[in-house]
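Anyone? Bumping this.
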Amino acid sequence: MQLDSKVPSGPIETRWQRRKFELKLVNPANKRKYTVIVVGSGLAGAAGAASLAELGYNVNCFCYQDSPRRAHSIAAQGGINAAKNYQNDGDSVYRLFYDTVKGGDFRARESNVYRLAEVSGNIIDQCVAQGVPFAREYGGVLANRSFGGAQVSRTFYARGQTGQQLLLGAYHALQRQVAAGGVRMFPRTEMLDLVVAGGRARGIVTRDMVTGKLETHAADAVVLATGGYGNVFYLSTMAKGCNATAIWRAYKRGALFANPCYTQIHPTCIPVTGEYQSKLTLMSESLRNDGRIWVPKTKGDKRSPDAIPEPDRDYFLERRYPSFGNLAPRDISSRAAKVVCDEGLGVGESGLGVYLDFAEPIRRLGRKTITERYGNLFDMYALITGEDPYRVPMRIFPAMHYTMGGLWVDYHLMSSIPGLFVAGEANFSDHGANRLGASALMQGLADGYFVLPYAMGDYLAQTKFDKIDSAHADFREAQAGVESKIKRLLAAKGKRTVDSFHRELGKILWDNCGMARNARGLELALAKIPELREEYWKNVIVPGANEEFNQSLEKAGRVADFFELAELMCLDALERDESCGGHFREEYQTGEGEAQRDDENFSHVAAWEYQGDGHRPARYTEPLIFEYVKPAQRSYK
Amino acid sequence: MKLTLHVWRQKNSTAPGQFVRYEANDVNEHMSFLEMLDVVNEELILKGEEPIAFDHDCREGICGTCGSMVNGLAHGGHKGATLCQLHMRFFKDGDEVWLEPWRARAFPVIRDLVVDRGALDRIVVSGGFVSVPTGSAPDGNAVAVPKPDADRAMDAAACIGCGACVAACPNAAVALFLGAKITHLGSLPQGQPERMDRALKMVAQASREVFGYCTNIGECEAACPKEIKLDVIAQMNRDFLRASLTQGPEAEQVAG
């Protein structure tokens, strides 16, 4: 299959401008004749749904949470990047573009990344106008801070809860459209299948999570903004409800899945304490602005951290990457922490942790400044661990955080199924093999506010739609499929809980397809996952019935999809015989332990096509062409 | 440690509910409260019983999904923490714990500890926003916002919409939630054009839902996991009063 990225040609600075002019428009009077489904109400979904409704389309927006305001975008702490150059420190659209392409280890599309950088400024403007209370200087102007992988200060923030404030901005815009009648909101409603009719995405099958009622919804186009698939690992920084069912169902209906092995491990999370652990809590990367990361130099040094003198400490990030130091990008910092822990230098009971120490910055800047910058993060840490980070260094360890892979989309955010758009973390997006901090919020809002509204108009204007409703055979077939899957799960009546399977699956993935991978481990995982999946369908217990509020059933369906996705991730990781960004194959590293890319053979997007259960999916490639940023080994030394 | 739980079990919004006693025998001090419930639920499922339904999502205190009354206190009564952030080290061996859903007529029970907080969304729909369509924003620094105003807006904007304020209030009033939204937007220059209208519409919607009236008791402030202060209610009252006086008969109509 030939993958047409629809990327414009010509100078990169004018590509999006010219493309916007070329895109077809829908007459204002005709917009209300179209219905668009938006699944997900996070930054991309809420921004997209609101913006589309403002244009005049009828939007039906679905979320599994009880309110659209709770989507997991809300948890982003640190900030959002934008090339405003308010600090006069040399930032520009081009530099943000450059940093993002480099940060992604040269595995993203240049044109997409440039557009992202180009609209980044508009995002800040939009959010400010909505009343997002960004941090300000005393003169009343917007404040900035620096973030991993960048040497300029371009990150805008709202205390430690930037994600929540940006999402509230988008949620307000969404609710304004609910009031205006442009958006109909379906909370506590989960998409369980995509309906493709006449070769186009025309609707979805949903389950009302309160009553269990299955329904189909027809539309002219469908947008999936359902987030990433990090919960396949069981333990991650994602919300418990985050799942891959929407994108996985779309994959099984023919949408290509790109780069599933690109997963991001965040370097600064609170370490695991026991088997009962249900999720991992992120400590914002912004802490690395001042905090210093270290481990004892000698194995088995059990002294308390304040009793370990400077010469006996190894500030391993500062040592290995003197120019970026503690602000080295996430993939590099995480791996460096893994290396020292593998050498037995890790701290804490489990030995899986490193210190993030604020003693020096507290001495230098005073406790008050540190409280102003990170107070709520320190409080959160103290609450969870029972330790006071003002006195004792924090202990942190990398955790599964973000997925760069996702459904393949062209420059218009349309998947390989006509009429199916994918936005935000759910698409394979603009981050290549590694996302820089504070860029996820940027991408979600860029897609929702500034790309989808244009792309949608073009698709609708160019397409002739047959009238369709839920009585159509394709809708009935999709609903019947969902019903039978639910029945099968309820009928298994086995001896193991959904969570116990999910935990085991997560462990297999973390061990073999986590921070470091190798062919042997991946082959092992590819043998173990199908066995466990087979057991799952025979031996899972799902109490209760479909026709009620049933959280076990919700989980069971999601985990069933995770099993299949996990296999695709391992397959993709095995096929990609190189290391790049978050995908670190131990066989491919430099003498100094850095990722060794193979640009000759792998400078491409790998997109997988479903070929039926039990059949190996087909792998297609989209070559990546770098006209502006010359691929080189990423150096943060 | 071992705990005895008394949990409100109710099959759906119309079925009668009751407390059911469970023993949590394997509780570790590092667990979060919700992880303790997970462990109890795993045991229930293996015994062939239905697990306790409770709302939760991010489990890091920001999404506002979780929340129950623990021994009569919203989110367990730990200062500045949601239920998911409450850790078991605050309990001791042999403790009895009573778990109930948010208690308010405006929040009907869906199942066990899960309630319907749609009323909060409807209040925001009524006017809790700045009307600024995508694309029509001036440069972010075009309007300077004095830091104290930005900080005041941020203090109020920290509300996560969990509903603890309503559940804690003896009147089941929604004043703290309302006041937080009105203060957040009303403290910023961007929120000024619709400030009066917003106060009228949101207060009117709140009175159409079945919340009680605020009598300045202050339980809401004590229960708020984001430590929103009572002064947001004063701000709301001020804006509402001013709007009622300045916007004339139209205002009366809106406010009912």
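Late reply, but here is one note on the structure posted above: Chain B touches chain A through 80 residues (CB under 8 Å).
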